[in-house]
Each structure stands twice: as C-alpha cells, then as structure tokens.
Amino acid sequence: KIQIVTFFRKSSRGDFVFSADRLIRLVVEEGLNQLPYTECTVTTPTGHKYEGVRFEKGNCGVSIMRSGEAMEQGLRDCCRSIRIGKILIQSDEETQRAKVYYAKFPPDIYRRKVLLMYPILSTGNTVIEAVKVLVEHGVQPSVIILLSLFSTPHGAKSIIQEFPEITILTTEVHPVAPTHFGQKYFGTD
C-alpha cells in the first residue's frame, strides 16, 4: 500500500496520469453501477434485439476543484452528455478548516443523483463542506455518491459520521494518502 504512494511520487508524469486515469475509470464505472436504471430493448445495427439497461434521467457529476476535475474526463468517457457542476473549496493550511469559494451546479440539482468527484480523501473536511453546499441546494445526502481514488480511514469516518447516508466509493483505504495528486496530475508540482 505504501508502494502506491511511492509510485505516485517517483513515477514520471506520463506514467502517473496513465495510472490515475485507469483508477479513475474504474471508480467512475462503479459509481455509475450504483445509479438507478430501467430495462430497455436495444436493436443492434444488424437488427437483433438485445435486452439492456438505460440510466434513469436525473444524474450529474460535481467535481471539487481542482483535483476533482481530473475525474471529469473519465465520467464523460462513460456518460457523454452528463451534466457536471463544480465547487471550489480550499483549506486553511494552519487550521485545516475548509472554506467554499465557488459553487456552480445544474439548476435542478436538487432532483438529481450526484456523483461527487474528489480523488484524495485525507481529513474529509473538504468533502464535508461540499456536501453541506449540496444540501443547501436541496440535494439529499442519500443520493450523493463520493468517487475517490484514495481515502484515509479518518477521512472516510469523518464523512460517514457527519452524513451517514452518503455512499463512498474508493480504490484504497490507507492511513497515508498521496496528497500531491492534483499537482502531479496537472503538472504543477
């Protein structure tokens, strides 16, 4: 598990982005599996009927800027026309208190299921503030699915204590989270 953090620190940016995008795609696909769907019949180009599924209307993504934006393309690759909102939250380095600076959501977000995207969950403070803003906009915590790549036990526990109805999907729970994710992904490290 520490090897993952070491890999992310010592790998080239190209290898880092490639591996991160693979993990993002996996967690996005699992998040989509959690959304409600209806059965439908699809006619293939060869004229054969296939029993498939279709997402119910009313889903959206919300990325917590900046690192959450790394997950947007993975969501769009799976769901081309999904609406994506954004929220900017920054933590004070001394107090670790999170403050909301910007939030832009689809106007009917209160009727949607929300895939909240934030790759590195360390303390949980940023996600808690994001969920509070979503709740202020009428979103029920029970329809929020947090998509994360790495989570600390403390961060996950903090979120669940504050919002027990939220769903958290992550690829890894470990006491050490690679907090430099956004800088390495976007090449600003």
From TrEMBL:
<keyword id="KW-0342">GTP-binding</keyword>
<dbReference type="InterPro" id="IPR029057">
    <property type="entry name" value="PRTase-like"/>
</dbReference>
<comment type="similarity">
    <text>Belongs to the UPRTase family.</text>
</comment>
<keyword id="KW-0328">Glycosyltransferase</keyword>
<dbReference type="GO" id="GO:0005737">
    <property type="term" value="C:cytoplasm"/>
</dbReference>
<protein>
    <recommendedName>
        <fullName>Uracil phosphoribosyltransferase homolog</fullName>
    </recommendedName>
</protein>
<keyword id="KW-0808">Transferase</keyword>
<keyword id="KW-0539">Nucleus</keyword>
<keyword id="KW-0963">Cytoplasm</keyword>
<keyword id="KW-0547">Nucleotide-binding</keyword>
<feature type="domain" description="Phosphoribosyltransferase">
    <location>
        <begin position="10"/>
        <end position="174"/>
    </location>
</feature>
<dbReference type="GO" id="GO:0005634">
    <property type="term" value="C:nucleus"/>
</dbReference>
<dbReference type="InterPro" id="IPR000836">
    <property type="entry name" value="PRTase_dom"/>
</dbReference>
<dbReference type="Pfam" id="PF14681">
    <property type="entry name" value="UPRTase"/>
</dbReference>
<dbReference type="GO" id="GO:0016757">
    <property type="term" value="F:glycosyltransferase activity"/>
</dbReference>
<dbReference type="GO" id="GO:0005525">
    <property type="term" value="F:GTP binding"/>
</dbReference>
